[in-house]
Write a structure and sequence with these properties.
The structure is a homodimer of 585-residue chains. With 585 residues, chain A is an alpha+beta fold. Chain A is built from 20 helices and 11 strands. Chain A has a domain of 122 residues. Chains A, B: Its cofactor is FAD.
Chain lengths: 585, 585
């Protein structure tokens, strides 16, 4: 198996030519002082190197060995601690963190590409740093100055890690039912008691301390509040003190991500600190969850890219059968990439992965503008972040599983064998469709809140901006432009129909949400392909330009029609879904 | 987790009312003397019982423990040997075997339902018996009387098992390259030397002997011949003698099916016996492979049914959130089955599973008529078996994975945990899309050989018979009948277009085959739903009739449009798949 190689040419092209990072960054002073394209390229080159040399080598061994829970300790697989220490020392955990507290202050638009490389190289490893960065983001946004100064430097440096503690056995998608209690103490802190399940990176041996962000209820309140609860207490000097009564009940045995610890966490009179306002914990947690939602989408994207590389390499090496109409080289056997069905599978993965990367970069860009921008530009970017985040989470993770399964099929029988490695991608990425809110929940958030919550205003704004942009493209095929433009407008029409229907038929949002999100994703990818193939025309490498045109044509011809299927599904409504009585299921 | 319960009402309904087994069996004297509906019902009731009580209990423990290769022995998980002995003694291995050699002579139309139950209960266990039955079928069809008398009784009784030894490292989908050699010996037998990989049930501790059907080449021949090679030699009295130099090199570590042994087999001057004519081994092997193809489709179907039951039970029990528009019971939380997206997922699995069972029963019926019938009825059934077998293998196994993944999604985070059991279904059924010829190969066989090989004659005959049958339905919705009828005719049109194009564009078959098979499958399932909902009208249980109508309406409304998508894909041709040079992948 060839080692992982980041698609650096594609990444630089997206940043520089498709989404014009230099112009974006120039408009954001807080970013401009930290990064330009040269710095960004140097960071990507280095991220490629550590992904290949540091992370990928522990991917399969970590899967075989798994995390172990022994004598109240959670032990990660061989090589994880050494790799994490080196990764943290390289500044990768704090890449997009606040410079004031030791972060590198890099834009998310660049961070998403670094995240993708890390997820391609090793899904399980990357979660530890991702949870830490997400927790730090939440503390930075909502925590007191005291909490920020005490915790953020140690988290950005990777010396302490972070975790997000929401789920309880009876409270998963529906957090109203959480029972963990927070009782105020005289010193302004709180006593936290309760249990949480499914806590990714809840405990492990990679860092000295784990900083938990825990949802709990105050006495006599149904509101939910957010608390910072360190595993080990931190004194005023920042030194580690005694245990904070935060213990691991057990670790889960999972389908995949076996090197990522998933813990049952118990708090027994643990000391916690309120983050944000009392009873407003979900709002604060959403800062972290939105970050994690994008990150989990990128987990799917990284998997897609890794799956493509493995399958394409195999298809060029594995010799079996002869091309239809005779071998192009006159050989008695050809590499299987000559076969139409194998090419179809590879092209499917490739076009969805490259367009997925565009979605990731665009979402990163909008996050940067929403965070560092001003005025109407900032407000609009915030709306777009709201719109794009659930799509990035769900559509990228759904495509991640599709990609892994399709790539596995290219390998034939060898794809089912553990040593080949492709089946691990299927098992590792499967959870991305579930955690941080299932993809069904993402779709309901998208259609119910983001699209129809403002009577289709943000969607219309976004779609019209895409339409206007398409009109400026000088190299794209006119029929393709017309097709994507028409589908973009259909999104608005169908969304408006749902918006009109939803009061009378409240079930329609829930029943049709997944199809609407899938329709949106497929149209958006068509838009991205026209952007990319148009921008590639002026690329110095003519083969690169030709390749993007082939891929764009394939996408428009073969994948875009899925958008029409999904739109028709939304229009078909909720009746045949809702009519059958529960007893007949 | 509730124990597995076979869907006996649906199974009996399909046999008795939809495909009129009594009439079919009455027309086949060899079957009629062995079975009537009462016998069939008694067999199904018993199969349900052993599936639940004997097979399902070893499903998860077998996955956890796996097969072990130790001191040249392959050891199955705890409980497998006891279960297999009891299963064999119950006559289940020889259920459809020849009565002359100890089989029970049951029709395949019934056998497919028994197979489905066993696969629902335990994928890995069921393969051992399935391979044995397939090998026995091949020996019965092509072996000498001496071989039949010596081997079949011990195989039908389950005392010896069977295996199919085709693949070598350099020869998978393309068997031309096999290197295993067969040298004629003076006594008319052959000396077999070589290695095979991926041999399901190649060795294990369930039976005293394993009867291998091995593909090998005679000296100075490029033709492929088929040989019966026992693991342990059998003397003229039928007693076991010395080792036949058939050894296990290693066992594979796989994504799933961990309780099924997958072996590297080595033959070192092993004694083998020619089956069928020299250099005509593939023709003989196809008898077994066609049997196994249907069986593997049924593996997917059984998985779908098990996945549905688990997910539906969970959705009725798990309480989370409130129904859109308010709880129907006024509760503060409802079971998740109230949510449209959860219902959508369950309905998806259910309609594909019930229509899949119809495909399985129809294919079984045609196999019976092809084997036991006469004249034109027999010839037509043979054509239909050719047409339906690749579809049953590919479409049922593809839907099996979809069902398992969708059901896993219903479980949310719990679906990713091994203890829940649903993730095992995903891992176990994934291989069904690959082995016995990948689903891409099935599709190419379907479109290239079965559909366009006779210039669309068999497809046209089959489709017109479906169309005529639809016209006789008195209870089905007229618009639904018109829709399915139109799509059936479109299948002929699109197939004819491909047939016209294929000489000029030989790549079109390979590139468009999967979409054509998927289009055919989705249209066929629409036809089945109209048949089923129509037949259910006269069912004694009015809720059963109502349920079939709800499901039929859902299928036509929500799933049938996929057929149009896939047909459009076929019409979009192969250009965007074939144009991009290999170097740009």
């Amino acid at each position: 198996m060839n080692p992982y190689q980041a698609p650096l040419a594609e990444m630089k092209f997206l940043l520089d030519k498709v989404f014009d990072a230099p112009q974006t960054w120039a408009s954001l002073p807080a970013i401009a002082e930290n990064v330009d394209m040269d710095t960004a390229v140097a960071i990507m080159d280095e991220a490629d190197k550590i992904s290949r040399e540091l992370l990928h080598p522990i991917n399969r061994s970590g899967d075989e060995q798994g995390v172990v829970h022994q004598d109240d300790k959670v032990i990660t697989p061989d090589g994880y601690k050494e790799a994490y220490t080196q990764y943290a020392e390289g500044g990768w955990v704090g890449l997009c963190g606040e410079p004031e507290f030791g972060g590198m202050g890099m834009p998310k638009m660049l961070g998403v590409l670094v995240d993708e490389m890390a997820y391609s190289a090793c899904n399980a490893f990357t979660l530890y740093g991702s949870l830490t960065a997400g927790a730090a983001l939440c503390i930075n946004a909502h925590g007191s100055d005291e909490l920020k100064q005490k915790y953020l430097p140690m988290m950005y440096s990777g010396e302490w890690s972070g975790a997000m503690d929401m789920t309880e056995p009876q409270a998963g998608s529906d957090l109203r039912g959480i029972r963990t209690k927070a009782v105020p103490l005289d010193d302004g802190s709180y006593s936290i008691t309760g249990s949480k399940i499914f806590i990714t990176a809840g405990d492990h041996d990679l860092t000295e301390n784990v900083i938990h962000l825990v949802l709990a209820k105050l006495p006599d309140s149904n509101g939910i509040s957010l608390f910072l609860v360190p595993k080990i207490k931190v004194d005023d000097s920042g030194a580690l003190g005694e245990s904070n009564h935060v213990t691991v009940g057990s670790i889960e045995h999972k389908m995949g991500l076996k090197a990522s610890s998933t813990c049952v966490m118990n708090y027994d009179d643990a000391q916690g600190y309120l983050i944000g306002r009392a009873n407003r914990g979900l709002v604060c947690m959403f800062t972290m969850m939105n970050y994690e939602r994008l990150a989990i989408g990128i987990q799917g994207l990284g998997t897609s890219q890794a799956a493509y590389q493995m399958a394409a390499d195999y298809a060029k090496e594995r010799v079996q059968g002869v091309a239809a109409g005779g071998s192009p080289t006159g050989a008695t056997s050809d590499p299987i990439i000559v076969h139409g069905d194998v090419r179809r599978m590879l092209l499917n993965i490739r076009v969805l992965t490259e367009a997925g990367r565009a979605l990731s970069v665009l979402t990163g860009q909008q996050l940067d503008i929403a965070k560092y921008g001003e005025g109407e530009a900032q407000a609009k970017a915030s709306r777009y972040v709201g719109l794009l985040t659930p799509v990035a989470k769900a559509f990228l993770s759904d495509r991640g599983l599709d990609a892994a399964i399709t790539a596995q099929q290219v390998f034939g029988g060898h794809g089912y064998i553990r040593e080949t490695g492709i089946e691990q991608l299927v098992r590792d990425t499967r959870i991305a469709q579930i955690y941080e809110g299932t993809n069904g929940i993402q779709a309901i958030d998208f259609l119910g809140r983001k699209v129809t919550g403002d009577k289709v205003a943000a969607l219309t704004e976004f779609v019209n901006e895409c339409t206007a942009k398409l009109a400026t493209l000088s190299h794209a095929d006119a029929a393709h432009k017309a097709k994507v433009t028409d589908l973009l407008q259909q999104l608005i029409l169908v969304a408006s129909e749902i918006n009109d229907k939803k009061l009378e038929k409240p079930a329609v949002i829930n029943a049709c949400a997944v199809d609407f999100l899938d329709a949106f994703g497929h149209v958006l990818y068509g838009y991205f392909w026209l952007l990319m193939s148009d921008a590639a025309v002026s690329h110095a490498d003519k083969e690169f330009a030709a390749q993007k045109r082939y891929l764009s044509d394939f996408y428009i011809n073969k994948m875009l029609p899925k958008a029409e299927y999904h739109l028709a599904q939304v229009r078909a409504g909720d009746e045949t879904i809702m009519n059958m009585p529960e007893s007949l299921f």
